[in-house]
Here is the input.
Amino acid sequence: MASTPYTPRVAIVTGAAQGIGLSIVRQLAQDGIDIAVNDLPSKLDKIHEVVDEIRSSGRKCIAVPADISSEEQVKNMVETTARELGSVDIMVANAGIAAAMSTLLETTTENFDAVYAVNIRGTFLCFQQAAKQMIKEGHGGRLIGASSAAGKEVLLNLTAYSASKFAIRGLTQSAAKELGSYGITANAYAPGLILTPLLGETTGDKDSVDEAVKTVKKVMGIPDDAGVADPEVVADFVSYICKPSSRFITGQTISVDGGLRFS
Here is the structure.
């Protein structure tokens, strides 16, 4: 059991240099939470831009560049956050990649392994190392993962991605069952079509936003009238699930998709 009440003070957000991660960082900072901003070391300039923005708002914020598929780097990221910001209360394992669209028969083992290394191994390591730190600190915490509408019902031409997002749901349930006695909840969000750079990864990054959305809908078998939203809709959900009042919600993967999937 947690020895002290859960109070959201410090969050680590992975994949936070852009897109959904950046929106989550901004929202949590508005909520009065200090932030450790993670992304790949190759994006260090963007990471520092985010850190400077959050610091200018009056919150404490540090850069913790790391490849989340590396156990040693994730461990160091968590330890650095605890040392410099005082604790680890929230882990938002947001980082993920989408390989080029391909069918089951066309997907290479290299692409499959690359997607799994980030999306599921990375989320596992973030959950594991953050949970160890939370248990050590004795105040409970929040583990939050990034699933997808494709992790509730597969989308066409996304074999590796869909499989990895289904796996995150299982990982989230395992964490919730095993860590509840420590005052730690585990949940995930399952976005639908969100306007982020990830759309560009699947379309070759050459299309306009409108064209990218059309391409994604057509190739993935998504209805033409399916809604599209900005990443702030996901950040709003994360904001709530980080609050003490969300303590009775755990093991859930919540759809944030405009009604694309009812499950």
Remarks:
- The two ends are 31 Å apart (CA to CA).
- Residues 10-196+229-256 form a domain with the Rossmann fold fold (CATH 3.40.50.720).
- The chain has a mean pLDDT of 91.
- Residues 109-137 form the longest helix (29 residues).
